[in-house]
Specification:
Layout: H1 4-14, H2 21-28, H3 33-50, E1 54-59, E2 62-67, H4 72-79, H5 88-100, E3 103-104, H6 105-112, H7 117-125, E4 129-134, E5 142-146, H8 148-153, H9 165-172
Antiparallel strand pairs: 1-2, 3-5, 4-5
Length: about 170
């Protein structure tokens, strides 16, 4: 396909959310996933080599342009952006959900040793946690899990990129 690199570049640029290979394929038609991935790899390298203000990254199951993290201070000054603030309770609750998902509230309460209702509600309002279903036990309690926004916020391609408990322990030492 002529101009495929330019087309994919433009598609990623205009997408509000990380753009998946499948969605790109849906737009382009009968182009192999392997070919699309190759073009995306080439574009990622070009943007990295350029060392400009942004790069193309694989994140939250798709591809998205992101500003370089080392330039965040300048962007915050321009935009007057205040970082998302999470309480310690919210951070601990989010960690339990991220590592134990799908998880019911009673399990989070047990692990944290306190009622997490408020923290859980706040995380859902910030769209970092969502309802993923119901547990198949009496009472059918709600199951919670993280969202794509969680992956985007923490620059993760997927949940397997979360540090292991062993890695976290080593960081603390």
């Amino acid at each position: 396909m002529k101009d495929m690199k330019a087309i994919i570049d433009a598609l990623v640029f205009v997408s509000e959310f990380p753009l998946t290979v499948d969605k790109i394929r849906e737009v382009l038609g009968e182009v192999e996933r392997k070919e699309i991935r190759g073009v995306l790899r080439d574009l990622m390298k070009e943007y990295d080599d350029r060392n400009g203000g942004f790069s193309l990254v694989e994140i939250a199951g798709g591809f998205q342009f992101r500003t370089r993290t080392d330039l965040a201070i300048w962007i915050k000054k321009l935009k007057g952006i205040k970082p998302m603030m999470l309480t310690q309770a919210a951070i601990e609750t989010l960690a339990v959900v991220a590592y134990r998902q799908p998880v019911v509230k009673s399990e989070i309460d047990r692990i944290r040793g306190v009622d997490v209702g408020g923290a859980l509600k706040g995380l859902m309002e910030k769209k970092l946690v969502r309802i993923v279903g119901r547990k198949d036990v009496p009472g059918r309690p709600i199951l919670y899990g993280t969202t794509k926004k969680f992956l985007e916020l923490f620059n993760l391609k997927n949940l397997s990129e979360l540090p292991t408990l062993r890695e976290l322990k080593e960081l603390g030492e």
